[in-house]
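Sanity check record (used in CI):
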Amino acid sequence: MFLCFISYKRNQSVTYLKRICRPFTFTTTIINININILFLLSLLLSSYPLPLIHPLQTMPASLEPLDLGVHIPYHFRCPISLELMRDPVTVCTGQTYDRPSIDSWVSAGNTTCPVTRATLTDFTLIPNHTLRRLIQDWCVANRAFGVERIPTPKQPADPALVRSLLNQASSDSAPIHLRLSSLRRLRQLARDSDKDRSLISSQNIRQILLPITFNAADELKHESLALLVLFPLAESECAALASDSDKVCYLSRLLSHSSLEVRVNSAALIEIVVAGTHSPELRAQVSDVDEIYDGVVDLLRSPISYPRALKIGIKALFALCLVKQTRHKAVAAGAPAVLVDRLADFEKCDAERALATVELLCRIPAGCAAFAGHALTVPMLVKIILKISDRATEYAAGALLSLCSESELCQREAVTAGVLTQLLLLVQSDCTERAKRKAQMLLKLLRDSWPQDCIGNSDDFACSQFIGEE
Ligand SMILES: *[C@@H]1O[C@H](CO)[C@@H](O)[C@H](O)[C@H]1NC(C)=O
Ligand SMILES: CC(=O)N[C@H]1CO[C@H](CO)[C@@H](O)[C@@H]1O
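Expected output for U-box domain-containing protein:
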């Protein structure tokens, strides 16, 4: 029956492929190769013992408990999770729990001590340092049994400490070095722990930092900016910044500062403002400042040893390119060449953003011409079209569609780079409808403008290359 199913699927796939590929004579090769792979896979699957048929053979292995061969002392276990405690904390009833367990107990709405059932009059958790040290010593002593040492957990900051640091930082009468070191300490806290970041955020941090960022001595301004960009701004704050052209100009000047960190932080704030402002007029006002593009595009030329510059650079460029009226400024600043050159250096999310930016820029004639003029654009897009994510696939297909609609040279390059194989794989995959639609439009475009035998040769080559890679 399974074989019947497979041969049914096989026929269906052949029909489907034939329907898509009818115009190409060369495609018989691809169909055969693809179908052979499918067929081979299904044969492999059908000879593999399926868990449904022999449930008893596969079950025991997965149910076997992880046995370290050591007995965890009773007092080292959390009464809630029954596991070895990593961060033991004592509540007001004197009972000790692991911090994550009691945290989720309390956040589930419980107001009693799980062991004594007494009402918790105070949710303060006091770290039980003695017990933690005993547990760590025990871990070290039992290393031979595979017990790993538990790292000392970071204690959350005391709200009183955060308040006093903020007071020092914002005090005009305090000496600069004190204000600076308060800001640095706050930045460290905010960077190291999410809890501390939300604690700091709850203390009016933006209202305190915004005036320092724009009106204090230079050093203080830069340190304050570095802290400010760790927190999201409200829409009203973004709009207020966007409509203040002095502040926008100040930020765009910082983009050519000698310190890379200052440049990255000012790009980060520009991105926060552009992405966070709802009004299209205000966004266009910020994105109209020429210096911004040179600065942001330059960040994308930063060495890979400073990944934050690439990350912030692409975020900012993407936010700016969403504003249609000013997109040509990104092209004039050299964004297309940099995007193609750095595409391989981005992490997954940033690569998606980069491809989205490429697609946006391809929608204006100047952008399309600039990408078409870069010899690596098309081969690069074809190479990564299926490699990053569903969204990335959509963007790359969209960019290729724009390029190939405009330029015959791009069509030739795409075919040489093996785009047909990629597109056929794409339409068979379970990618998004949008990506499929673009792929089908691109296939149709290439089919309409290319004589059959030309495509045949180049794609045979691309196809064997694909098989070799996998
Ligand atoms: C720490 O935990 C142990 C074991 O639960 C407990 O006996 C001890 O009283 C706790 N110490 C503090 C200071 O709460
Ligand atoms: C009031 C309340 O939320 N009680 C919860 C306490 O925790 C237990 C176990 O996690 C839940 O079952 C209760 O609903």
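The first strand starts at residue 88 and ends at 90. If this sentence no longer matches the regenerated tokens, the check is flagged for review.
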